[in-house]
Design brief:
homodimer; alpha/beta; 11-stranded mixed β-sheet; 11 strands
């Protein structure tokens, strides 16, 4: 059991062969203890209770897509019976109900193991802005785990759970994926309900999925995605099972003048190798001027949207300033000098920049960017808690402001052994398209999954289907 | 020539029979002088220059849809060669180019006569918030002309021009139509370019059309509507020529508890008579709870959007407070106490209310409301410059916040002889559908056009077409 691979296919095979889910639950908790990292989970479900829930699933039911699948939940997403803290003990509350998305996953047979650590209030891309112990990066304890969904990413990378929920406003569902050699799927805004989720920037937030493989992440996405009429920002996003990419794909990439690696030549080489892989699979790579995208990215923390965070924790900061992490407090406090007119000026600027990006996006099927420009160590963050964090958002901050969907996918390791990672981005509703192309990248080069020694499974057998516009598309869920 | 009807059909017939456009121009200027109202136009084009422009059109060309058609332009929309003041002399500038929409109309052969008065910076629904003489209501000089597009509405109602451009944020393209017995077409947001238009609330503004008949308004709409890539809020709105309404139409109307006439029983009776007319034409009238729509309406001036106006004139108010009308200054000044967080709280509230209206709108084809709840006199506004203005927006303020298109259409006069008016509203892109149903209402009862003695022309001969979703729809322009 110790060598049981925690992928959906592997677990299903084990279940079909007679493995019991309470045995899997026991193995999950054994791995948690073996990891010896108190920073991953902020709250664990009671092991006996999860085992009982597993037994209550009854006999193996292949029709329940996540039957007996263990998963973890970022601690800004409600799970009934566990507190929600958003990594701020003073903010904690005890939700009566599961978040909408958690409930859907459980209905499909998945088992909640516990709640994971995060940059407090999901403000940060580093994973160190927490009053709890910082989770260790699953591959290299010297580098940051990435955030804000730090615990969820590490739990998946260490093979403790099959998948985990994160959230993603600025890149919190992608940056930690890149830093831990796993997949981070950031859905189209509104595809996942925000009911039962602590908002960061309510107009830009989404729940996200971490998994070891694209296929696993996408399956969890299909189960979790559903229109929630109680979420005013929910949208009816059409998703279909993973299919083969269309025969001809145009992939826009930042031109040489737009690329930013902050001196990391190895990361640049890794990015170029990834693009060559895409071309080798038949994609056409098109260089684009990325300046409007960079300009949008800079608006996220410089512009009005930080005021959204203030609507969530402004009262807490005023009442108990010391209850909030000092870096978080400094960032969110900037909102206090922003007027409503400033907010509208920000929207006008964003509208102008969006218009600039439209012809670029019209001419391609998707974008491909590095997920992160480089790696930062815990020591780097101690020396400068802001700068490295900002730079980690270089290729992620613009994505939700432009209403793109994205998937960060591990690819061939860098020459120095650090994980390679690329992100594919496309217009809202194209989650399936980018996931299908992501399967090309995860099959690139010798690699194991996350921080495990588990091999990359064979490429999924994807049916060729007609272009999305030409076929009827089923709504998942 | 004095009795020449200024409708598109009548003028085209005259042109086809040999009438010269410079003769029509001379008649326009004669009517302006005869009107004896210095409040209608803030700036007139030089008569000789317009006559020369008319002669330069060459021989009559039936293929130019607005060949020789005189029109007026609200003075917050640029016309090259005339100042743009937005009814604030201190704000005036001299644009080098026509606004995008004006340019399209001129390319189609239309002739700009002059720039019309307005509530300063398009802030108001009454027409009296201007430092210039207040235009007289075309029907009754005791009542307000309505605003903010006061001069444009009066110029059309008096038969001075065939159509006029207004703008509409809160109802400025509809309220003056109701008060002057003409049609006010408020397009889907983004259908008309905002390039060359002084913003009021940039996210909610649209240029609008006044005309004597639905057919004339819709023809001008089809000419003017076009995607403008330079306007970040421009949208690709598909419009098709006016067609017969589909055989079955469900029209939502406020239920008895939601109706607000502020004691005006005659207006209530007029509204009910209009609904009976709709039913007589085959529509199904469905009563709905209008509270969410009223709640949205209240947000327009109570909520964050007033900060948009502040982005336009905040600097002017700070520099030269006396240059701004005191009522306008007081309204826009409210923005100074609104934070960016307040703005986002407003958006969240709007999103929740929008979600509440969605099932209502899903169950009907369009809404029908009174354009105005009652009439107010100049004396009423002198006694209270704010209250009557707010009440005039009862059935208009929510429309752009909910991204609806609308058309205000005159209908059978009230029992006391005041003009009857209804507004039809539908989701973005349904401009043609509501215009087609509006033709039923303008044919209701004995009536003349605007303030003229011209008869209502026979109903246009509308082709029956399949539902919009089932046919290929051509983009106008």
């Amino acid at each position: 059991m110790h060598d049981q691979i925690f992928s959906l296919d592997a677990l299903r095979s084990a279940y079909a062969a007679g493995r019991r889910p309470d045995e899997v639950v026991a193995e999950v908790f054994r791995r948690i203890r073996a990891a010896g990292d108190p920073g991953i989970f902020l709250h664990l479900n009671d092991e006996a209770a999860v085992a009982a829930e597993a037994r209550a699933l009854g006999p193996y039911d292949a029709d329940r897509p996540l039957w007996g699948i263990p998963f973890a939940v970022k601690d800004n997403i409600d799970v009934a019976g566990l507190p929600t803290t958003a990594a701020c003990p003073a903010y904690a509350y005890h939700p009566a109900r599961d978040a909408f998305t958690v409930a859907r996953l459980r209905e499909a047979g998945a088992l909640v193991i516990g709640k994971t650590n995060l940059d407090q209030f999901a403000t940060g891309l580093v994973g160190v802005r927490t009053p709890y112990p910082v989770p260790r990066n699953a591959l290299d304890p010297e580098i940051v785990p990435g955030g804000s969904s730090s615990g969820s990413a590490v739990a998946v990378a260490r093979g403790i759970v099959c998948f985990a929920l994160g959230t993603d406003t600025a890149g919190s569902g992608r940056v930690p994926a890149a830093l831990n050699n796993i997949v981070g799927l950031k859905p189209t805004l509104g595809a996942f309900s925000a009911t039962g989720v602590v908002p960061a920037c309510r107009t830009l937030d989404t729940v996200s999925i971490f998994a070891l493989t694209v296929a696993d992440a996408f399956e969890a996405f299909c189960v979790a995605a559903a229109f929630d009429p109680d979420d005013a920002y929910g949208r009816k996003v059409r998703v279909s099972p993973l299919a083969a990419p269309p025969p001809s794909i145009r992939v826009g990439v930042p031109d040489a003048a737009s690329l930013r690696f902050f001196g990391d030549k190895v990361q640049e080489a890794s990015f170029r190798a990834g693009l060559a892989r895409l071309e080798g699979c038949g994609a056409t790579v098109v260089e684009i001027d990325f300046q409007p995208f960079h300009a949008v990215a800079e608006m996220l923390y410089e512009g009005a949207w930080v005021a959204e965070r203030h609507t969530v924790i402004g009262d807490l900061i005023a009442r108990s300033p010391d209850a909030v992490h000092p870096v978080t407090r400094a960032i969110v406090g900037k909102a206090e000098s922003l007027s409503a007119a400033d907010a509208f000026r920000g929207f006008y600027r964003l509208a102008d920049l969006r218009r600039e990006t439209e012809p670029v996006l019209d001419a391609i099927d998707m974008l491909c960017v590095p997920t992160i420009p480089t790696f930062y160590s815990l020591a780097d963050l101690e020396a400068d808690p802001i700068g490295p964090n900002s730079r980690l958002g270089t290729y992620t901050n613009f994505v939700n402001l432009l209403d793109l969907c994205g998937i960060s996918v591990p690819t061939m390791p860098r020459d120095d052994g650090r994980p390679g990672s690329l992100t594919l981005l496309a217009r809202a509703g194209q989650d399936g398209l980018i996931a299908s192309v992501a399967t090309w990248l995860e099959q690139f080069g010798p690699r194991t999954l996350g921080a495990t020694q588990w091999p990359v499974p064979a490429a999924p057998d994807l049916r060729a289907v007609a272009q999305a516009d030409e076929v009827e598309i089923a709504v998942c869920g």
